[in-house]
Design the sequence.
């Protein structure tokens, strides 16, 4: 039977969360609006008009929730800082109540002997900055650096474990190209501008943390998915390569000093030339102590001439009759293993932490219990795949499950439940799911 001991005694097990998804208290104690506060007010942008104003009310319940992390047996608590809680206007005047709140969260972790791991940016840009262009505008980099310095100076004496940006491809593509996440902008020009500024921000952020915090362990996270060509035809194989550039290589390669992956995709090359991206190659490079990989599913793609630019189309798990989660994401642990190996093959990747992995299912609360065997099975499969990669020599040193409790799943609102703990959003009553108990047993010494 799979056991945490198989991963070694130093292996760090954690649980990941994000400010906008759990905190609530969206207008309390001086917090300024974030793009998710405003985006969710627009008609039809989130399922059933759900918004993050209250979410899990972690802002008021953090003590009980951190105790839950401890109860489940995890060692690391990953959370993010709401930029507009510290800097309501994005830059300038600091909201002391925000600083105090995160000190309380950190102190509560330390009290329970948990390691606090801070994500600086998990998608909730201050609305004030979005109004002046957000991630599309060059000025975002100076604003981001001010925010990073403030966090490093405020919390660096207590927190050593940092992640600069959560899934830059996620917010750049969903928020600036497809318009289905905040701030709801579309088009390639917006997307590529956001990509460039985010690639600079992840490296700048790393440098600031390094300069400000003694003994900091600095990482950043990347979403990743094995890209599988639908058939072995040349067209499908080259379509898969383009998608791989976009979804897997776009942010890690600049961080490693390789620049954008232009060689496999002419559109990127044209962009790089016309937007002088080359000039920033050095600035986009940073020697991260570790990289955070976040994986949920593979993508099967085939060539499609009617899709502009990328000329590729996803063949969904459902139509391939493959097992999938409530999100429609294929359950495929071999692809988890394969993508870990793909990222581990970069010579400059020193250490890997899985900073997110988990699944949403149709949980039913029956007689005070949630029997989510499907989620338990998912974790067993994915952890076994990770162990295989580790045993083959990949330097994986930690794993964080997504996520502590059901929360605001962005455009999906409160309908997609990823938690190990069920949340009743009307009463805020937390109920540990069977998967939570499974983790407790798995992690028990
Ligand atoms: C990626 C994001 O980082 C997180 O915020 C989100 O909830 C999960 N994956 C699940 O979609």
Sequence:
């Amino acid at each position: 039977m799979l056991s945490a001991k198989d991963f070694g005694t130093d292996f760090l097990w954690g649980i990941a969360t994000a400010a906008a998804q759990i905190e609530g208290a969206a207008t309390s104690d001086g917090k300024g609006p974030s793009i998710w506060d405003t985006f969710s007010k627009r008609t039809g942008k989130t399922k059933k008009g759900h918004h993050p104003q209250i979410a899990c009310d972690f802002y008021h319940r953090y003590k009980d929730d951190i105790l839950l992390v401890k109860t489940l047996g995890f060692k690391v608590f990953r959370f993010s800082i709401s930029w507009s809680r510290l800097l309501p206007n994005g830059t300038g005047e600091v909201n002391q109540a925000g600083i105090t709140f995160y000190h309380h969260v950190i102190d509560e972790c330390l009290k329970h002997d948990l390691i606090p791991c801070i994500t600086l940016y998990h998608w909730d840009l201050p609305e004030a900055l979005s109004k002046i262009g957000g991630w599309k505008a060059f000025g975002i980099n100076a604003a981001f650096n001010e925010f990073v310095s403030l966090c490093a100076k405020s919390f660096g004496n207590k927190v050593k474990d940092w992640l600069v940006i959560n899934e830059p491809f996620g917010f750049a593509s969903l928020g600036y190209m497809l318009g289905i996440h905040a701030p709801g902008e579309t088009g390639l020009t917006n997307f590529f501008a956001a990509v460039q500024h985010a690639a600079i921000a992840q490296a700048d952020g790393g440098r600031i943390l390094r300069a400000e915090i003694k003994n900091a362990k600095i990482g950043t996270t990347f979403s990743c998915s094995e890209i599988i060509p639908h058939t072995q035809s040349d067209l499908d194989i080259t379509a898969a390569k383009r998608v791989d550039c976009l979804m897997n290589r776009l942010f890690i390669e600049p961080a490693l000093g390789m620049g954008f992956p232009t060689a496999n995709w002419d559109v990127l090359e044209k962009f790089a030339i016309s937007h002088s991206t080359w000039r920033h190659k050095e600035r986009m490079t940073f020697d991260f102590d570790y990289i955070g990989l976040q994986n949920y599913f593979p993508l099967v793609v085939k060539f499609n001439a009617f899709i502009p630019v990328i000329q590729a189309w996803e063949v969904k798990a459902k139509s391939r009759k493959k097992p999938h989660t409530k999100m429609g994401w294929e359950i495929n642990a071999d692809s988890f293993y394969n993508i870990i190996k793909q990222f581990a093959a970069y010579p400059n990747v020193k250490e890997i932490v899985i900073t997110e992995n988990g699944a949403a299912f149709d949980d039913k609360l029956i007689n005070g219990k949630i029997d989510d065997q499907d989620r338990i099975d998912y974790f067993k499969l994915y952890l076994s795949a990770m162990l295989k990669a580790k045993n083959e020599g990949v330097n994986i040193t930690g794993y964080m499950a997504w996520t502590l409790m059901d929360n605001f799943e962005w455009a999906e609102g409160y309908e997609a439940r990823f938690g190990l703990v069920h949340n009743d959003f009307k009463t805020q009553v937390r109920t540990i799911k069977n998967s939570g108990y499974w983790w407790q047993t798995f992690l028990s010494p």
Summary: Residues 18, 21, 166-167, 170, 294, 356, 402, 409, 418 surround 1-deoxynojirimycin (CB under 6 Å). The CA atoms of residues 344 and 394 lie 6 Å apart.
